[in-house]
Amino acid sequence: MRNLFSFIIRYYFFFLFLLLETVAILLVIQQQHYQRAFFVSSANFLAGNVYKLTSGITDYLSLGKVNRQLAEENARLLDLTGSSFLKTDTLEFIHNDTVFLRRFQYINAGVINNSVTRRNNFLTLNKGRKHGIEPDMGVITFNGVVGIVTNVSENFSSVISLLHKDMQISARLTKNDQIGTLIWEGHDYRKVTLTYIPTHVELSTGDTLVTSGFSVIFPPNIFIGTIGQFKIRRGDNFYTAEIDLALDFNSLKYVQVVKDLMNDELRELESQTQNVTR
User: What pLDDT sits at residue 47?
Assistant: First the structure.
C-alpha cells in the first residue's frame, strides 16, 4: 500500500492531467451534438467488434460440445427413419399393434484413432462392449458408410475401414436398382470402385449410390457417393465405375454404430437353409 501511495504521489501530475482531460472530453460530448453522435457511433462500433470477437472465441471453444450434440441428434434421427423398421402385416387388427417393427438401432461413438494413408486402414472408437457394441456391427454417418466393427474391448472397439483391401460392400444405384460391389483399390481415400454392374445397364456421371440392404450389417439406402467416371476394362463383361465418396474419412470425428435387432434370427435362418442345401 505504501508503494502505491508513493507511485501516485510521484506521478500525480500525470493522473491529474488524465482526470482533467477526461472531464473536458465529457463536457464537449455533452454540449456538442456532432461530437456526441461521433462518440456514440465509435463506442457502438468498438463494442460490436469486441462482442463479435468474444462470440467467435466462445463458439470456437464450444465446437466440440456442438459436434457431440449433433452426432447424438443424428443417432436419434436415424432411429426414426423408415430404414430402421421392417414393415410387416399380420392381416389382423390388434389394438396398439403396428405394421412396423424396429430392426435397427444406432449407438453414437467418437473416433479416437483413424488412418487413411495405408493400404489397410482401421479406426478406433471410444465405445465398447459395455455400451452395447459387438463385432460385425456396421459403422456409418449421415454422409456414408464407414466400416465394420472387428474387435471389441470393454470400453473401446476397432473398425475395419471401408478403405481396406478386404472390404466389399453391396451397393445399389438409385436410378435403376442395379446391384454392384464396392471395393477400395488403395489410391485415393476420397474414391472407391464399383464393380459387377452389367454392361447393358445405362450409367451416367453423377448417378447416386446407396447401400443395398442385402446384409445384416448396413441398413438400406445409406448414401455412399456418386459416379465420377466409368469404363469397361479389357476382357471384362462388367462396368468398373469410380465413386466419389460423400464421406471425408480424413475428418471423421463422430459415427453411428448400427445394431441389427434381427441379426440372430436372420443368421439362424440362413444357417438352417445352408445345412438343408448341402
Answer: 47
Dist. CA 41–CA 47, nearest whole Å:
10
Distance CA 108, CA 53 (A): 33
Question: Above 90 in pLDDT, residue 76?
Answer: no
pLDDT digits (tens, 9 = 90+) for 170-195: 999 999 999 999 999 998 999 999 99
Q: What is the pTM of this model?
A: 0.64
Instruction: Produce one character per residue of 233-252: b if its CB has 16 or more CB atoms within 10 Å, e if not.
Output: eeeeebbbbbbbbbbebeeb
Rounded Cα gap, residues 73 and 84, in angstroms: 15
Lowest mean pLDDT among 84-88, 91-95, 269-273: 91-95
The ranges assigned to domains in the chain are 2-60, 82-162+252-270, 169-248
How far, in Å, CA of 110 to CA of 256, rounded?
Answer: 9
Instruction: Give residue 275's pLDDT band: very low, low, confident or very high (50, 70, 90).
Output: low
Query: What is the Cα–Cα distance from 35 to 32, expressed in whole angstroms?
Result: 6
Superfamily of domain 169-248: Rod shape-determining protein MreC, domain 2 (2.40.10.350)
Element (H, E) at 60: helix 33-61
Q: Which helix (H) or strand (E) holds 147?
A: strand 144-152
Cα atoms in the 13 Å half-sphere on the side-chain side of 85: 12
Calpha distance 48→79 (Å, rounded): 42
Characterize 109-129 residue by residue with b for buried, 16 or more Cβ atoms within 10 angstroms of its Cβ, and e for exposed. Answer: bbbeebbbeeeebbbbbebbe
Q: For residue 200, give the C-alpha cell.
A: 447393358
